[in-house]
UniProtKB/TrEMBL annotation:
The lineage of its organism: unclassified sequences, metagenomes, ecological metagenomes. GO terms for molecular function: cyclic-di-GMP binding. Residues 37-116 form the PilZ domain. This is PilZ domain-containing protein. InterPro entries: PilZ_domain. Pfam families: PilZ.
């Protein structure tokens, strides 16, 4: 039997109940799709680091990563989609270039960007 779980929509920040199964239903309030398009499972982590974005040093926090992608949070406007940057972290050993595949303001002046690692 599938369990009913409380979900929080990342788009409208409203809570809704849904049966947890392989198919993830859209948000009841705004229709945002909760389908995970990631190729591999993500490892949740919070590591601070500095990135060079358009010759501006930005303090960022790595929120999660996998072999093919990473999500960072930072103060400032969302980075342009398709922008690239070097992501170099001794721990957990990430030294790769990333291309922004999505970017959005989350809360006030805080933004998050998802990168495809190459």
């Amino acid at each position: 039997m599938d369990a009913i779980k409380l979900n929080l929509c990342p788009e409208c920040n409203r809570a809704f109940f849904a049966i947890q199964a392989e198919f993830r239903p859209p948000c009841n309030h705004c229709g945002y799709s909760l389908i995970d398009h990631r190729l591999e499972p993500r490892i949740n982590i919070d590591i601070g680091f500095t990135v060079n974005a358009k010759n501006e040093m930005i303090y960022s926090i790595l929120r999660d990563y996998s072999d093919s992608g990473a999500r960072i949070a930072y103060e400032g406007k969302p980075l342009p989609v398709n922008s690239t940057m070097d992501i170099n972290l001794e721990e957990p050993g990430i030294h790769r270039q990333g291309r922004a595949v999505w970017s959005k303001a989350i809360n006030g002046s805080i933004s998050q960007t998802g990168f495809k690692l190459t």
